[in-house]
Amino acid sequence: MDQHRRGSQSASPRPAEPPSVAEIVNSGDPFSVLGPHEISPGQWEIRAIVPDVDAVTVLDRDGQTVLAPMERMPPDGLLVASFHASERPDYRLRIERHSIVEIRHDPYSFGTFLSHDDLVRIGDPTSDAVYTKLGAHFLDLGGIQGFLFTVWAPNARRVSVVGDFNSWDGRCHLMRRRHEGGIWELFIPDIAPEQRYKFEIIGLHGNLLALKADPIAFAAEHPPETASILKSAPSFDWQDSEWMKSRAGENHRKAPMSIYECHLGSWSRVPEEGNRYLTYRELAVRLIPYVKDLGFTHIELLPITEYPFDGSWGYQPISVYAPTSRFGTPEDFAAFVEAAHAAGIGVILDWVPAHFPNDPHGLSYFDGTHLYEHADPRLGFHQDWGTYIYNFERREVMSFLVANARFWLERYHLDGLRVDAVASMLYLDYSRKAGEWIPNRYGGNENLGAIDFIRKMNEVAYATSPGAITIAEESTAWPGVSQPTYTGGLGFGFKWNMGWMHDTLRYISKDPVFRQYHHHDLTFGLLYAFSENFILPLSHDEVVHGKGSLLGKMPGDQWQRFANLRAYFGFMWGHPGKKLLFMGGEIAQEREWNHDESLDWHLLDSSYHKGVQSLVRDLNHAYQSIPALHERDCEARGFEWLVSDDRDNSVIAWLRRGDDETSVAIVVSNFTPVVREAYRIGVPLPGFYREAVNTDAGQYGGSNVGNLGGVVAEDVPSHGRPCSLTLTIPPLATLILVLDHEGSGPNI
């Protein structure tokens, strides 16, 4: 405690006239007036602003001995007590208000807390100082407990902490400006966790801004309320050391990765209790075993950083260091992550550094200037989403965002970040017409600040969280998105293959009679399939805004719609690339996704819907257990076309290889409702090819056409291969056949 008391105020002559409260409030340096001051040798004054009290008395450190009563000075009530002391007094304030007596420490009796090194590190993108030094941090100073508040607001004229502990009165807790870094700080003793707070800011031009939530708050109120919540830094008794150690040694490009994308607010609800959300802990008990049973390796959460508007699905976050309170506390969220790890499931967070909403309590116009965003709307405003764009070129903003990525990976043990809307960050002319954007210093449309930020974020994420991954949602042909930064890439681990998604969904939505004219939509993706480390996404974006559900995109009668969907899933799981499926796809959700409602779990009473779910489970198990289907997902040498040009029959076939050249799987899709009898396909090796997956199997709701468990390769050359299979290809179906070196065996 003493280190924060020594030298906090130097001796100064007593002013001729006591300053007014207004003068103190607007001075930017309340410590120059408030707190203890030696006005002459041995004579001390204690000055305080304590509105709406009956009496305030200065007590000795014992909290009982009266040193002096405080007198209210005109014109507007500054409280002053004067007394003699041989050394700087260690005192308390006895406050009487409405017959209630409190004894408190004076915030203005403490010195500075942030060192010069701290202030420098806050602006260093490789540092964790943003979330270890900024925000509200619980401190225990030799038995004096309270919170140290710090906030970056370099252009503000005055900043105050307001909250439940001071009746939201900005005169009570004026902060000290640290000119070195534009940081304001104040230690407020004798306040407890779980109370609400915000910052009251007088802007650059003297205007009082809307109360601002803490940009580094670790918890926030349940929307629509907007206050930050006092929390100690997120702490949890983690028991996942084995998971973290194992993860650090994982080669994710080689490993199976099948991701279940999930919106926690609508996966399932509790209708008998007002249609309420499940909590993080309830989701740990219900969602995680479900995902485990279906064979997914990861859960990807739509954004859970605190956001005000349900309809944004989390993509317009305000408090980016706080898990949303909709589902529980930060500790509850940590428990959810640990439960996933205990089940062998990784957790990926959908992370949104591209933009932020213009809600008045958020980051926009934070200190009365465009602090986090560009001032020029051609650089700083998203026309599509009505949101602000971060000023990535500002060192402190880059540090704020890079530290946020690090925070979620380190503090919550998350296994990856899926970075939203990367294309909108990379291009200055993204969704803008000529004249609506400003070229970079070289005259180009690349956002150089965003590129630097993305590279730095990826470097820091991989350096500080071994085994974690980053994933880009990037929809253009930007080169090297998933290549290392030292080769000129952006440094992501993986990239969503948006082109594959759009092409193949366009194809599968066609009536089979017309598919022969769109065959290229199936094959085009292989021209670039290994240019990046791709994830094949069937994401939430494909089942909203009038697009209908995946099942709803399928043509034909009921049987054909389900068969099409099953064939498409088989095609996807057999295709090179990691897998991602948005919740509901696995049960063939009939209607479009609605964020306000639970999935239609009653559909599983139908054999068709249950069959699709069973197929997804088996596809995941096959994908994980068959090395040829995952070991070379990102390598061209793991793929060979067998049949790419049979557009007349809408049949397509390819070969997948694992690291062992004899680890072979054959994938065959028939996208017409016609059985293809005696269809010959060349294969590289002799032996028995076990039918590991047949999407037309009766257990999935199919017609049970197939090959009786497998086919022996004949010594008949075909398709440039020395051997061949003669197959019965079911209608609207995908087969996955595996070279079985031990002979025939049961289906997976």
UniProtKB/TrEMBL annotation:
Pfam families: Alpha-amylase, Alpha-amylase_C, CBM_48, GlgB_N. InterPro entries: A-amylase/branching_C, Branching_enzy, GH, GH13_cat_dom, GlgB, GlgB_N, GlgB_N_E_set_prok, Glyco_hydro_13_N. Keywords: Carbohydrate metabolism, Glycogen biosynthesis, Glycogen metabolism, Glycosyltransferase, Transferase. Residues 277-617 form the Glycosyl hydrolase family 13 catalytic domain. It comes from the Bacteria. One of its GO terms (biological process) is glycogen biosynthetic process. The keyword Transferase applies. Its EC number is 2.4.1.18. GO terms for molecular function: 1,4-alpha-glucan branching enzyme activity; cation binding; hydrolase activity, hydrolyzing O-glycosyl compounds. It is an enzyme of class 2 (transferase). The active site is at D420 (nucleophile), E473 (proton donor). GO terms for cellular component: cytosol. Catalyzes the formation of the alpha-1,6-glucosidic linkages in glycogen by scission of a 1,4-alpha-linked oligosaccharide from growing alpha-1,4-glucan chains and the subsequent attachment of the oligosaccharide to the alpha-1,6 position. Monomer. Belongs to the glycosyl hydrolase 13 family. GlgB subfamily. NCBIfam families: branching_enzym, PRK05402.1, PRK12313.1. This is 1,4-alpha-glucan branching enzyme GlgB. It comes from Microvirga lotononidis. The gene is glgB.
